[in-house]
Design goal:
The protein has 290 residues and is mainly alpha-helical.
């Protein structure tokens, strides 16, 4: 029963933080440590992300449907007359940007998997990235405020690559996938709505691949799987419950974030990141956080 309750709490944390620029991986790592629970485990945290992934599909179902319909329409178009260039719809460009934007993360994840799951999940590097990337988000947001005018319909594969490279940084706990992709989109001069929407859409293949890759470790853990001392071992049922909770809370979190950031800057989240990072570094320095 104790692990069941912890799974629900972690599902709530995942749902609340996945789409906010505060780093869900950092919160899933640090909060259990601060509560004395131990480590949630990489496989568990990756799988419950599938709940928030489903929340993105449900919330953006109309946009996803529109994009797929646009792609299908473009594929059915007759070829242009000889000598005339073939026009490419923006929906095709969006799909291409998402696909290309996923490649850097996939390659880096395969190359640095063990290092990411161990060394980079220690309190000091996680807290440091919370602070540094929080400040970077604030500086980029303010520095590009008067330059951001591009709508999502203006997207190209180059934008996908640029934002995708920033997303790859989120493999490091504390960076924040949503935060890093917002930085990338702001630097590419997308307006706030376009930056937010592309950040959500780019999360679809990234979270899906991560969750499915780690799902096998929940179903049948390997003896060689990398885990930290004090790792909690959740059953399939506990993991399923946490995933459902993450979906429900994640859906509400998307709706709230879109409304909030439509009228406010990311300053609140930056302050939260810095405060949490300082608290963690202080607790670790005093020997109160393993």
């Amino acid at each position: 029963m104790e692990l069941f309750i912890k799974a629900i709490v972690l599902g709530i944390i995942q749902g609340l933080t996945e789409f906010l620029p505060v780093s869900s991986s950092a919160h899933l790592d640090l909060i259990p440590r601060m509560l004395g629970w131990g480590d949630a485990g990489v496989a568990f945290t990756a799988v419950i992300q599938l709940g928030t992934l489903l929340a993105v599909f449900v919330y953006f179902r109309k946009r996803i449907g529109q994009t797929l319909a646009g792609i299908w329409k473009a594929l059915k178009q007759a070829p242009p007359p000889p000598g005339e260039p073939r026009t490419t719809s923006w929906e095709v460009q969006l799909l291409l940007a998402v696909c290309i934007g996923t490649i850097p993360l996939a390659l880096l994840a395969l190359a640095l998997k063990k290092y990411i799951e161990t060394t980079l999940r220690e309190p000091v590097p996680v807290a440091s990235m919370l602070i540094l990337m929080g400040l970077a988000l604030w500086l980029v947001e303010k520095g590009t405020e008067k330059l951001r005018e591009r709508p999502l319909t203006d997207i190209t594969w180059r934008d996908g690559l640029a934002v995708g490279l920033m997303q790859a940084l989120a493999l490091v706990p504390g960076v924040s996938r949503s935060g890093s992709t917002l930085i990338g989109a702001f630097l590419r001069k997308f307006d706030r709505d376009a930056a937010l929407e592309f950040s959500f859409l780019l999360s679809l293949p990234a979270v899906l691949l991560s969750g499915l890759f780690e799902l096998k470790e929940v179903i049948k853990p390997k003896a060689t799987e990398v885990t930290l001392p004090g790792t909690m071992h959740f059953s399939m049922m506990e993991t399923l419950v946490a995933t459902i909770v993450a979906f429900v809370v994640g859906y509400a979190s998307i709706a709230w974030m879109l409304k909030y950031l439509a009228k406010h800057s990311t300053l609140f989240f930056v302050i939260w990141r810095v405060v949490l990072g300082v608290v963690v570094l202080t607790m670790h320095g005093m020997g109160k956080l393993p």
